[in-house]
Structure formats: C-alpha cells, structure tokens
Amino acid sequence: MRVRKTAVIAAASSLALLTGCGAADMTKQASPFANAQGAKTVTLSVQSWVGAQSNVAVAQYILEHELGYRVDTVQVDEVPAWDALSQGRVDALLEDWGHPEQEQRYVKDKKTIARGGELGVTGHIGWYVPTYLAKKHPDITNWKNLNKYSHLFRTPESGSKGQLMDGSPSYVTNDKALVKNLKLDYQVVFAGSEAAQITQIRQFAKEKKPFLTYWYSPQWLFKKVPMTEVKLPPYKEGCDADPEKVACAYPHTPLQKYLNADFAKKGGEAAAFLKQFKWTTEDQNEVSLMIAEQKMTPEEAAKKWVDSHKSNKSTWKKWLS
C-alpha cells in the first residue's frame, strides 16, 4: 500500500479468508451482478489489507441496510483491480494508494474509470524499527546508519545481510531499488502476505528482537507494537519516477476512490453514496482493530461502528445526503 503506491494486514483465522497468502487475482471470478443494468446491486473491489477491508465493510453495511442494495465483493490485487474496474467487473475501488500508469490509461485516455474523490485518509509507507530498539540505538532511525546495525537484522532468509521485511510481492514497493541505490547491506525478504508479516512482527516484538520492516499508516498494529520510522532521503516530486533509480522516501498520499465510468453516471443512489463516502484515519483504524484484533467479522465491525457513537452516525449520515 506502494508507488503505493502500495501497502502492504491477521494471523487470526478470522482474517484468513480476507487476507490469504497475498490476495489472489480474482478478476475472472467477479460477481455476475457487477454493472447489472437496472438492478439495485453493487460490486466492490476489496483489497487484501485490513484498512481497505474496513472501508468496504462499512460501505457495504450502509448500502444494504440504509439504501436497500445487494452488495457483492471481489478480492483483486491492486493493479488487476484497475482492469476489473475498467471492464465493469467491479463498480468501485475505495482505496487506491497511487497508480499513475493506470490512472493515465483508464481515467485520462480511455475514460472508462472516473474519479470518486478522496477517501479522507492519508497513507504513508516507510521503513520501521520497533520503538524499543530505537530507544536503545537512537541513531538507527537514520538510513545512513543502517549498515552499522545490519548484523542485528540477519535471519536465515537474508543470510549475511540484514533483513528488510516486506509483505506481499503483489504490492508495489521501491524497497529493492532503495537497498541497491542507497548501498545498504540488506536483503528484501517477503513474508508472503500482510497477515504473515504481522505474525512475524508480533513474534519479534514478543521476544524483543530487532527487526526492520516495510510498513505503512494508517495501520492498527501500531497500537499493539509501537514502531519508529527510519528517515530515508527526503521525498521530492518526481524522485520516484524511475523505479530503477529510486533513492528517496515514500510520499504521503491522500488515498483516492475510483468508480467505473458507466456506474459513476448511472449508478444512482449507490454511486452518489460512494462518492460521498469519506472518513478519517481514526475511523478506519477503529474498524480495522475490531476486525483484526477483536476477531469480529467485517459485518459485525461495520455494524458496531455505525451504531456505536453519535459522531459516527453524523459522519455516515452525510454520505447519504
């Protein structure tokens, strides 16, 4: 979620269906209800990290219980999701971390996808170490000092180099280029999925072991495992334009929504609602924590969020206006 360009969310069995071992490309198994003319149906693309699942859970709950729609969800990897959206296999994508090539192709050139507005959440990818390690070695939070500590991060997977842990290979990441271009003595190792990455992070933290990981916010795990960001060379517009030459930090990205262009025009109340759907990082994290940590189903978490606070009600009521 990267570039997110993209991120990368539990080890709990309740999330297994949602996260899997890196989201499979389900494009060809899209709902038969997607883009159905005249039917009160909506098909939403659900990404494999729990923040995106939280968006979809709450949108689905309100569409079904307040607007009377039948909602289907399809799990699709980030780039294939754009193809599915363009083809009308899904109607909406509620959390995109920035895919300029797809935006140029489908929004600007083909005009098969329409902008759906900002989600209200700003995403940021970065490299993190556990805060207990940063307190012990304060200078470790500057990338220039990482080689000094690479021996602390060695694992069987990284060999003689330090391990930089990433999540799913399906996520967009600059990490291999960063390691190479910054001349760091590290090896990027993929956990396989967000769920697997979370499991490893929590195990390292339980044992108070050092770890360096690609991670992102918003993310509920920060509440359970405090982490401190490692400062990479400052991000400047265009510094990540060439994937092979990236040597800068990830940007802070206002997350965007996109709709199938036909659905945006003819989707009625559902399209209008999804364009209005906008909440805060705190809102998203609240639902994510219920799903990932409290083991609620997405529907249970959505219902609790919708019903629990007057402030929440005032937020989602605006989406219906």
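That was protein one. Protein two is written in the same sequence-then-structure order:
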Amino acid sequence: MLLGMLLFALNDAMGKWLVASYGLGQVIFIRSIAALIILAPFLWMAGRKPIVEAERPALQFARVVFSTLELFCFYYAVMYLPLADVMTYWLAAPIYVAAAAPFLLGEKVGWRRWTAIAIGFVGVIITLEPSSAMFTMPAVISIIGTAAFAFMMLSGRSLRGTPDKTLVFFQTAGAALIGLVMAPLDWTPLTSISEVLMLGLLGIVAMGAHMLVNRALKISDAATVAPLQYTLLLWAVVFGWFFFWEVPRLTMVIGASLIVGSGLFIFFREQQLKKRDKVLPAIPE
C-alpha cells in the first residue's frame, strides 16, 4: 500500500500537469491504452481463463463502474481545483471504507481505530486548508469521485479470489472504452513522440499503483491498509516542491503529524490484536 501510494502521488502530479494541455478523454484514453500494452504479456501468459471465468461478474462490472467514475472525477476535478483541495476529498476515502467495511465485508473496526481515523481526517483538513472552491461543482464531482474510490476498494476486497492482473485489466479496459468515446470531443493534436510517451507513462505508473493497492487489500483488512493512503501527503510535499516549487506550510507539518500518527496507531493496533487472538479468544476492541 505504501509503494502504491507513492505511485499514485506521482500519477496525480503528472495527471494535473497533462490535463492542463490535453483533453480529459484524450489523456485517459492514451493512459489506458499504454497500461493495457504493458499488461498484455502477463495476460497472455495467464491465458483466457482468468478473464472469461472471473468470479462474481456482477460485482466485477460494478467495480469497473466505480473505478472509471473515480478516474474521470479525479481528472475533471484537478482541471479546476488545486491539487491539495482535490486530495482532501480523496483522502476521506478511508473513512468511507472503515464505515462500510463492518457491514459489507464483516470486518471488525473498534472504537480506537474509529478515533484514529477521525483524527487523521482532521489532520487532512489542517494540512490542506481547503479553499472556498470546495463548494463549487468541481468539488461536488470530487465528493462523488472519492465515494466511488472507496467502493472500488471495498469491491476489490470482496473479489479476493480474482487475480490482480484481471482486476487491473477490467478497470483499465473500462476506462479506455469511455476515454475512446470522449476523446474526439476534446482531442488536442500531438506534435511529438515525447508527448505520446509522457501520456503513456501516466498509464504505466497508474497500472503499477492499482496492482499494488489490490494486493494490499487482499492480504490485510480494508480498515487497516486504507488509512495508509494518508502517506500521499508526504509525497504531495515532495512532488509539490519538485514539480511545482511549492514550499510546505506550518499547517502542513502539524496536519501531517496527526495523519502519520493515526496511520501508525492503526497499523500497530491491528498487529497487537492479531498477536492477542493467537493466544486468547476474540476480545472486543
């Protein structure tokens, strides 16, 4: 999950830069085609069975809808809002996951982890200082996108029997299809091979991030790994300075301390409970 968040942060920074110069549908279409090209050899080696015989087709389709909606909402939002504002919404996804996991996945989330997640969200607000632009239509799109992201994560956890490559293929193919439909509406001519390569690199980075997150959700419960998305803030500082010359504010340092602290508490609390359950009956948190 930590490595996946690093790649997602890089993808976010690249995406914001690219949608400023190219059409939304164009960026997503080329991004998705590049990811499918890289994924193709792995799918070829695995054969057709993981694709045509994937478990729970209805849930697979729902996950594609969630992932495609989340993707378009994110890139639409960063066209009009500061990246920090958009990330505020997206970093609320672990709260949605934690709230829904007990009902949809049967996972237990005690009051200690609920408290830690709430503190982490307060840290996000302090760090990013959302602007008045939060109440515009792009902000509403952001809320829809982050909710779709949370449900995509939950559905991925439910599809634990599906290979990672299959999950990534379905969501990438779905994005490519919708991107193909939208691309002619706002296509910007590409004048050099470097432009094509940059758009393609966006897809490769995103594919790697999704595969890592899918794996994380399969080997641990959603309420434990989802809060680790808060490490996006660390990479937001690094990439913000490197690409956009943004200098961290004092509020970012304070908020990041709360966020990192809550994430570490959740991680170590989960490890403590696992060790306890090995020698004692289940004890409520």
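The two ends are 24 Å apart (CA to CA). Keep this in mind for the problem set.
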